[in-house]
Amino acid sequence: MRSSSVCFTLFALSTTLAAQQASVSGVPAMGYALDPSARALRPIWGIPRAASAGEPIEAGFAIQSAVISSSGSYGLAIAGDGTLRLLTLSGPFSNVDVPVVGRAQALVRSPRGTAAAVLAENWIGFMSGFSAGSSQVAGVPINTAPVQVSVSDDGAYLIAALPDGSLEMFGRDGTQVPLSAPAPISMVAFRPGDTDALALSVDNRVWLIHQTSFAQIAGPGDGVSSSVGLGFLPDGNTALIAGSSGTILTINVQSGAKSPVVCACAPSRLEPMAASGVFRLTSSWTEPQYMFDGASLQSFFVPAVPANNVHRRRPED
Protein backbone atom coordinates (compact mmCIF):
# COMPACT_ATOMS: atom_id res chain seq x y z
CA MET A 1 0.00 0.00 0.00
CA ARG A 2 2.79 2.43 0.88
CA SER A 3 4.60 1.94 -2.44
CA SER A 4 1.35 2.56 -4.34
CA SER A 5 0.77 5.73 -2.33
CA VAL A 6 4.30 6.94 -3.06
CA CYS A 7 3.91 6.23 -6.78
CA PHE A 8 0.62 8.14 -6.88
CA THR A 9 2.19 11.09 -5.04
CA LEU A 10 5.13 11.17 -7.45
CA PHE A 11 2.77 11.00 -10.43
CA ALA A 12 0.65 13.86 -9.10
CA LEU A 13 3.77 15.91 -8.40
CA SER A 14 5.20 15.28 -11.88
CA THR A 15 1.97 16.28 -13.62
CA THR A 16 1.70 19.42 -11.47
CA LEU A 17 5.28 20.41 -12.35
CA ALA A 18 4.61 19.75 -16.05
CA ALA A 19 1.53 21.94 -15.88
CA GLN A 20 3.45 24.77 -14.24
CA GLN A 21 6.54 24.60 -16.44
CA ALA A 22 5.26 23.91 -19.96
CA SER A 23 5.69 27.18 -21.82
CA VAL A 24 7.13 28.55 -25.05
CA SER A 25 9.41 31.58 -24.65
CA GLY A 26 7.73 32.37 -21.33
CA VAL A 27 4.23 32.12 -22.83
CA PRO A 28 2.00 29.31 -21.50
CA ALA A 29 1.95 26.53 -24.08
CA MET A 30 -1.81 26.05 -23.66
CA GLY A 31 -2.47 29.77 -24.04
CA TYR A 32 -4.85 32.19 -22.34
CA ALA A 33 -8.60 32.25 -21.79
CA LEU A 34 -11.00 34.92 -20.56
CA ASP A 35 -12.33 34.70 -17.01
CA PRO A 36 -15.61 36.69 -17.20
CA SER A 37 -15.89 36.84 -13.41
CA ALA A 38 -12.53 38.56 -13.03
CA ARG A 39 -12.94 40.30 -16.42
CA ALA A 40 -9.35 39.32 -17.10
CA LEU A 41 -7.26 36.75 -18.96
CA ARG A 42 -5.91 33.69 -17.19
CA PRO A 43 -2.91 31.71 -18.45
CA ILE A 44 -3.33 27.96 -18.78
CA TRP A 45 -0.02 26.26 -18.14
CA GLY A 46 0.98 22.76 -19.10
CA ILE A 47 0.02 20.21 -21.71
CA PRO A 48 -3.12 18.14 -22.35
CA ARG A 49 -3.97 16.04 -19.29
CA ALA A 50 -1.38 17.91 -17.20
CA ALA A 51 -2.52 21.53 -17.16
CA SER A 52 -3.51 24.14 -14.61
CA ALA A 53 -4.92 27.66 -14.64
CA GLY A 54 -2.85 30.57 -13.38
CA GLU A 55 -3.69 33.88 -11.72
CA PRO A 56 -5.66 36.50 -13.70
CA ILE A 57 -3.49 39.03 -15.49
CA GLU A 58 -3.93 42.54 -14.13
CA ALA A 59 -4.40 44.48 -17.37
CA GLY A 60 -5.48 47.71 -15.71
CA PHE A 61 -8.87 47.64 -17.42
CA ALA A 62 -11.90 45.36 -17.51
CA ILE A 63 -11.85 42.93 -20.45
CA GLN A 64 -15.22 42.19 -22.02
CA SER A 65 -13.98 39.81 -24.72
CA ALA A 66 -10.63 38.76 -26.15
CA VAL A 67 -8.86 36.63 -28.76
CA ILE A 68 -5.27 35.38 -28.61
CA SER A 69 -2.77 34.91 -31.45
CA SER A 70 -1.49 31.45 -32.34
CA SER A 71 1.88 32.19 -30.72
CA GLY A 72 0.20 33.30 -27.51
CA SER A 73 2.39 36.41 -27.57
CA TYR A 74 -0.35 38.87 -28.49
CA GLY A 75 -4.02 39.36 -27.78
CA LEU A 76 -6.86 41.66 -28.74
CA ALA A 77 -9.27 42.78 -26.05
CA ILE A 78 -12.42 44.88 -25.95
CA ALA A 79 -12.46 47.09 -22.86
CA GLY A 80 -15.56 48.06 -20.93
CA ASP A 81 -15.73 51.41 -22.72
CA GLY A 82 -15.81 49.75 -26.15
CA THR A 83 -12.22 50.55 -27.07
CA LEU A 84 -10.00 47.93 -28.68
CA ARG A 85 -6.59 47.16 -27.17
CA LEU A 86 -3.67 45.17 -28.57
CA LEU A 87 -2.05 43.24 -25.72
CA THR A 88 1.58 42.15 -25.55
CA LEU A 89 1.58 38.99 -23.45
CA SER A 90 5.19 37.84 -23.87
CA GLY A 91 7.68 39.66 -21.68
CA PRO A 92 6.45 42.74 -19.80
CA PHE A 93 2.68 43.10 -20.25
CA SER A 94 1.60 46.15 -22.23
CA ASN A 95 -1.36 47.34 -24.27
CA VAL A 96 -1.99 49.96 -26.94
CA ASP A 97 -5.21 51.37 -28.36
CA VAL A 98 -6.26 50.14 -31.80
CA PRO A 99 -8.35 52.62 -33.82
CA VAL A 100 -11.82 51.41 -34.78
CA VAL A 101 -14.92 53.13 -36.13
CA GLY A 102 -17.41 53.29 -33.25
CA ARG A 103 -17.51 50.98 -30.23
CA ALA A 104 -15.95 47.55 -30.67
CA GLN A 105 -18.61 44.88 -30.14
CA ALA A 106 -17.10 41.50 -31.04
CA LEU A 107 -13.80 39.86 -31.92
CA VAL A 108 -12.91 36.80 -33.98
CA ARG A 109 -9.53 35.21 -34.72
CA SER A 110 -8.64 33.23 -37.81
CA PRO A 111 -8.30 29.41 -37.62
CA ARG A 112 -4.52 29.52 -37.20
CA GLY A 113 -4.53 32.71 -35.14
CA THR A 114 -2.56 34.68 -37.72
CA ALA A 115 -5.28 37.26 -38.39
CA ALA A 116 -8.28 38.71 -36.60
CA ALA A 117 -11.34 40.84 -37.19
CA VAL A 118 -13.22 43.30 -35.02
CA LEU A 119 -16.91 44.09 -35.44
CA ALA A 120 -18.36 47.47 -34.57
CA GLU A 121 -21.69 49.01 -35.46
CA ASN A 122 -21.91 49.03 -39.29
CA TRP A 123 -18.15 48.39 -39.59
CA ILE A 124 -15.65 45.50 -39.89
CA GLY A 125 -11.94 45.88 -39.15
CA PHE A 126 -9.44 43.39 -40.63
CA MET A 127 -6.08 42.81 -38.86
CA SER A 128 -3.81 40.69 -41.05
CA GLY A 129 -0.66 41.14 -38.91
CA PHE A 130 -2.23 40.04 -35.64
CA SER A 131 0.23 37.23 -34.89
CA ALA A 132 3.16 39.64 -35.34
CA GLY A 133 1.67 42.25 -33.01
CA SER A 134 0.58 44.68 -35.74
CA SER A 135 -2.14 47.15 -34.78
CA GLN A 136 -2.87 48.18 -38.38
CA VAL A 137 -6.57 47.87 -39.27
CA ALA A 138 -8.30 48.01 -42.66
CA GLY A 139 -12.01 48.75 -42.24
CA VAL A 140 -15.04 48.26 -44.47
CA PRO A 141 -18.71 49.15 -43.89
CA ILE A 142 -21.43 46.58 -43.24
CA ASN A 143 -25.16 47.27 -43.21
CA THR A 144 -26.36 44.46 -40.91
CA ALA A 145 -24.86 43.11 -37.70
CA PRO A 146 -23.92 39.44 -38.37
CA VAL A 147 -25.09 36.58 -36.18
CA GLN A 148 -21.72 34.83 -36.46
CA VAL A 149 -18.54 35.37 -38.51
CA SER A 150 -15.17 33.86 -39.41
CA VAL A 151 -12.04 35.54 -40.81
CA SER A 152 -9.50 33.89 -43.13
CA ASP A 153 -5.90 33.28 -42.05
CA ASP A 154 -4.54 35.87 -44.49
CA GLY A 155 -6.89 38.48 -43.06
CA ALA A 156 -8.32 39.17 -46.52
CA TYR A 157 -11.85 37.78 -46.16
CA LEU A 158 -14.65 37.56 -43.63
CA ILE A 159 -17.64 35.26 -44.08
CA ALA A 160 -20.77 36.30 -42.20
CA ALA A 161 -24.02 34.57 -41.29
CA LEU A 162 -26.66 37.30 -41.22
CA PRO A 163 -29.86 37.46 -39.11
CA ASP A 164 -32.09 36.43 -42.04
CA GLY A 165 -30.04 33.25 -42.57
CA SER A 166 -28.22 34.55 -45.63
CA LEU A 167 -24.47 34.31 -46.09
CA GLU A 168 -22.07 36.95 -47.39
CA MET A 169 -18.35 37.18 -48.03
CA PHE A 170 -16.67 40.51 -47.26
CA GLY A 171 -13.25 41.39 -48.61
CA ARG A 172 -10.59 43.54 -47.00
CA ASP A 173 -10.60 45.44 -50.31
CA GLY A 174 -14.26 46.38 -49.81
CA THR A 175 -15.84 43.69 -52.00
CA GLN A 176 -19.07 42.08 -50.84
CA VAL A 177 -20.34 38.84 -52.40
CA PRO A 178 -23.60 37.08 -51.39
CA LEU A 179 -23.46 33.27 -51.31
CA SER A 180 -26.50 31.25 -52.29
CA ALA A 181 -26.80 28.87 -49.35
CA PRO A 182 -29.17 25.90 -49.70
CA ALA A 183 -30.72 26.64 -46.27
CA PRO A 184 -30.58 29.44 -43.66
CA ILE A 185 -27.11 29.52 -42.09
CA SER A 186 -26.41 30.05 -38.38
CA MET A 187 -22.67 29.33 -38.04
CA VAL A 188 -19.55 29.55 -40.23
CA ALA A 189 -15.82 28.71 -40.01
CA PHE A 190 -12.99 29.16 -42.50
CA ARG A 191 -10.69 26.27 -43.36
CA PRO A 192 -7.11 26.83 -42.07
CA GLY A 193 -4.94 28.57 -44.67
CA ASP A 194 -7.76 28.58 -47.25
CA THR A 195 -10.92 30.36 -48.37
CA ASP A 196 -12.99 27.17 -48.21
CA ALA A 197 -15.33 27.22 -45.23
CA LEU A 198 -17.78 25.23 -43.16
CA ALA A 199 -21.36 26.34 -42.66
CA LEU A 200 -24.03 25.01 -40.33
CA SER A 201 -27.64 25.49 -41.41
CA VAL A 202 -30.55 25.81 -39.00
CA ASP A 203 -31.80 22.35 -40.02
CA ASN A 204 -28.62 20.76 -38.56
CA ARG A 205 -26.85 20.15 -41.85
CA VAL A 206 -23.13 20.87 -42.23
CA TRP A 207 -21.82 22.19 -45.55
CA LEU A 208 -18.36 22.52 -47.06
CA ILE A 209 -18.18 25.70 -49.13
CA HIS A 210 -15.75 25.81 -52.07
CA GLN A 211 -15.90 29.12 -53.92
CA THR A 212 -19.69 29.41 -54.45
CA SER A 213 -20.65 25.71 -54.25
CA PHE A 214 -22.08 23.93 -51.20
CA ALA A 215 -21.57 20.22 -50.48
CA GLN A 216 -23.30 18.58 -47.52
CA ILE A 217 -20.86 16.61 -45.35
CA ALA A 218 -23.04 15.81 -42.29
CA GLY A 219 -26.58 16.09 -41.03
CA PRO A 220 -29.02 15.11 -38.28
CA GLY A 221 -28.52 11.42 -39.09
CA ASP A 222 -24.89 11.80 -38.04
CA GLY A 223 -25.87 13.21 -34.66
CA VAL A 224 -25.63 16.90 -35.53
CA SER A 225 -27.89 18.78 -33.11
CA SER A 226 -27.74 21.68 -30.66
CA SER A 227 -24.38 22.71 -32.13
CA VAL A 228 -22.35 25.31 -30.25
CA GLY A 229 -19.25 25.51 -32.45
CA LEU A 230 -17.56 24.28 -35.57
CA GLY A 231 -14.08 24.44 -37.02
CA PHE A 232 -11.14 22.43 -38.33
CA LEU A 233 -8.12 20.65 -36.96
CA PRO A 234 -4.84 22.32 -38.07
CA ASP A 235 -4.41 19.97 -41.07
CA GLY A 236 -7.57 21.42 -42.61
CA ASN A 237 -8.84 17.93 -43.49
CA THR A 238 -10.79 17.20 -40.31
CA ALA A 239 -13.88 19.23 -39.50
CA LEU A 240 -15.24 19.48 -35.95
CA ILE A 241 -18.80 20.11 -34.77
CA ALA A 242 -19.33 20.46 -31.04
CA GLY A 243 -22.80 19.83 -29.60
CA SER A 244 -24.13 20.92 -26.22
CA SER A 245 -25.02 17.29 -25.44
CA GLY A 246 -21.32 16.50 -25.06
CA THR A 247 -20.46 15.04 -28.48
CA ILE A 248 -17.75 16.40 -30.77
CA LEU A 249 -18.26 15.02 -34.26
CA THR A 250 -15.13 14.70 -36.41
CA ILE A 251 -15.47 14.54 -40.20
CA ASN A 252 -12.75 13.79 -42.72
CA VAL A 253 -13.78 16.17 -45.51
CA GLN A 254 -11.90 14.11 -48.12
CA SER A 255 -13.10 10.58 -47.32
CA GLY A 256 -16.33 11.51 -45.55
CA ALA A 257 -15.44 9.31 -42.56
CA LYS A 258 -17.12 10.43 -39.35
CA SER A 259 -16.37 9.68 -35.72
CA PRO A 260 -18.02 11.01 -32.55
CA VAL A 261 -15.94 11.88 -29.49
CA VAL A 262 -17.87 12.00 -26.21
CA CYS A 263 -16.95 14.53 -23.53
CA ALA A 264 -18.19 14.23 -19.95
CA CYS A 265 -19.29 17.85 -20.18
CA ALA A 266 -21.84 20.14 -21.80
CA PRO A 267 -19.86 22.15 -24.38
CA SER A 268 -20.76 25.80 -24.85
CA ARG A 269 -18.05 26.68 -27.39
CA LEU A 270 -15.28 25.39 -29.64
CA GLU A 271 -12.59 27.96 -28.90
CA PRO A 272 -9.09 27.38 -30.36
CA MET A 273 -6.23 27.67 -27.90
CA ALA A 274 -2.60 28.62 -28.59
CA ALA A 275 -1.65 24.95 -28.38
CA SER A 276 -2.11 23.55 -31.89
CA GLY A 277 -5.28 21.49 -32.26
CA VAL A 278 -6.55 22.17 -28.73
CA PHE A 279 -10.01 23.70 -28.24
CA ARG A 280 -11.76 24.94 -25.10
CA LEU A 281 -15.26 23.48 -24.72
CA THR A 282 -16.56 25.03 -21.47
CA SER A 283 -16.23 28.40 -19.77
CA SER A 284 -16.97 28.24 -16.03
CA TRP A 285 -13.85 28.60 -13.89
CA THR A 286 -15.60 27.28 -10.77
CA GLU A 287 -15.83 23.91 -12.54
CA PRO A 288 -13.21 21.96 -14.50
CA GLN A 289 -12.40 23.56 -17.87
CA TYR A 290 -13.00 20.86 -20.45
CA MET A 291 -10.95 20.88 -23.63
CA PHE A 292 -10.61 18.81 -26.79
CA ASP A 293 -7.21 17.59 -27.96
CA GLY A 294 -7.17 17.11 -31.72
CA ALA A 295 -3.91 15.13 -31.64
CA SER A 296 -5.40 12.30 -29.58
CA LEU A 297 -9.07 12.98 -30.43
CA GLN A 298 -9.85 12.94 -26.72
CA SER A 299 -11.23 15.42 -24.22
CA PHE A 300 -9.44 16.41 -21.03
CA PHE A 301 -9.97 18.92 -18.26
CA VAL A 302 -8.08 21.67 -16.48
CA PRO A 303 -8.87 21.61 -12.74
CA ALA A 304 -11.30 24.23 -11.44
CA VAL A 305 -9.96 27.41 -9.89
CA PRO A 306 -10.42 27.48 -6.10
CA ALA A 307 -13.54 29.44 -5.15
CA ASN A 308 -11.57 32.08 -3.26
CA ASN A 309 -9.52 32.76 -6.40
CA VAL A 310 -12.37 33.39 -8.82
CA HIS A 311 -13.93 36.67 -7.71
CA ARG A 312 -10.98 39.01 -7.63
CA ARG A 313 -10.90 42.78 -7.81
CA ARG A 314 -12.30 43.86 -11.15
CA PRO A 315 -10.06 46.48 -12.81
CA GLU A 316 -11.72 49.69 -13.85
CA ASP A 317 -11.29 51.45 -17.18
Structure description:
The protein has 317 residues and is mostly beta strands. The protein is built from one helix and 29 strands. The strands form eight sheets. It has a four-stranded antiparallel sheet, with no helix packed on it. A four-stranded antiparallel sheet has the order 10-11-12-13, with no helix packed on it. The radius of gyration is 20 Å and the shape is globular.
Quick summary of this structure?
The chain has 317 residues and is mostly beta strands. It has one helix at residues 2-21, and strands at residues 23-24, 27-28, 31-35, 40-47, 50-53, 63-68, 74-79, 84-88, 94-98, 104-109, 116-120, 123-127, 138-141, 148-151, 157-161, 167-171, 176-179, 185-190, 197-201, 206-210, 213-218, 227-232, 238-243, 247-252, 258-262, 271-272, 278-280, 289-293, 298-302.
Q: Strand content of the residues, in percent?
A: 35-45%
Instruction: Supply the helix-strand structural class.
Output: mainly beta
Global mean pLDDT: 89
Order of helices and strands: HEEEEEEEEEEEEEEEEEEEEEEEEEEEEE
Q: How much helicity do the residues have? A: under 10%
Query: In oligomeric terms, what are we looking at?
Result: single chain
**What is the makeup of the main sheet?**
4 strands, antiparallel
- Span from first to last CA? 55 Å
Shape: globular
Number of strands: 29
Strand order of the largest sheet: 6-7-8-9
Rg to the nearest angstrom? Answer: 20 Å
- Enumerate how many helices there are, as a single number: 1
Low-confidence stretches: 1-21, 311-317
